Amino acid sequence: MKNAIVVVDDDPIIRMDIREMLEEGGYWVAGEAKNGEEAVELVARLKPDLAIMDIKMPVMNGIKASQIIRKLQQDTSVLLLTAYSQKELVKDAREAGVAAFLVKPVSEEDLLPAVEIALSQKEKMDSLKQDIKQLKQSIEERKVIEKAKGIVMLAYALNEEEAYQKMRAASMTTRIPLSKLAAGVIVDGVGSLSGAVQDR
Fold first, then answer.
1. Which terminus of the chain is more solvent-facing, meaning fewer CB atoms within 10 Å of its CB: N or C?
2. Spatial distance between the Cα atoms of 178 and 171, rounded to a whole number of angstroms
């Protein structure tokens, strides 16, 4: 079994058909809902990889539910189903952050490739988020190192390269990551550098 999916449709027969197609395709159907409101609660609780959802439903329609799901649970992709293919619906679905769009009646030949596309988009987004997170962390670390380098330059009357090498040597000697050592310099001053390295 791979990937958790929730199925949302006010028609229990359609839900059952989609569940069967997904399970035959090797997917895990984590839950079902019959309207958009239930879908939002289900996604918030189960945090599935994908929600397959009808547009026309009572209480709350699929597009409104998609908007809420995409805001609350960024990690869940949404695949919308509809009996209509009007351009306006496609536009609304796209603006709601929907990953894919299928017109009913849905066949296994249509559903499974659409599921794969929606899930691959989710994987790309997850990877991109991770890259952005690492980049932000790297930028923050660089800022800390630059600030600490300025402190070391003033304290020891060194140029930029000499100050950096002094910090780098202290980092290697103490086996403390450069960014962590730099944070120590900012908080405690140059006394936080290794004594052995300070005397070089």
1. N
2. 5
* Cα 122–Cα 72–Cα 129 angle in degrees, nearest 5: 40
Tens digits of per-residue pLDDT, 95-118?
666 777 777 888 787 888 888 888
Instruction: Report helix, strand or coil for 47.
Output: coil
The one-letter code for the residue type at 126 is D
Q: Is the pTM of this model over 0.90?
A: no
Distance CA 113, CA 128 (A): 22
Contact 26, 3 (CB under 8 A): no
Q: Report whether the peptide linkage leading into residue 58 is cis, meaning its omega lies within 30 degrees of zero.
A: no
72: amino acid identity, one letter = L
Q: What confidence tens digit (pLDDT) does each residue in 5-54 have?
A: 999 998 999 999 999 999 998 999 999 999 899 999 989 888 899 999 98
How far apart, in whole angstroms, are the C-alpha atoms of residue 97 and residue 69? Answer: 9
Token readout for 156 is 């020891």
CA distances for 12 relative to 9, 65, 97, 155, 185, angstroms: 7, 19, 26, 74, 64
- Closest alpha carbon to 85 in 111, 104, 109: 104
Question: Per this entry, what is the length of the chain?
Answer: 200
Beta strand 27-33 with 50-54: parallel, antiparallel or unpaired? unpaired
Extract the tokens encoding 77.
């992709």
Q: Which residue, 171, 174, 173, is CA-closest to 182?
A: 171
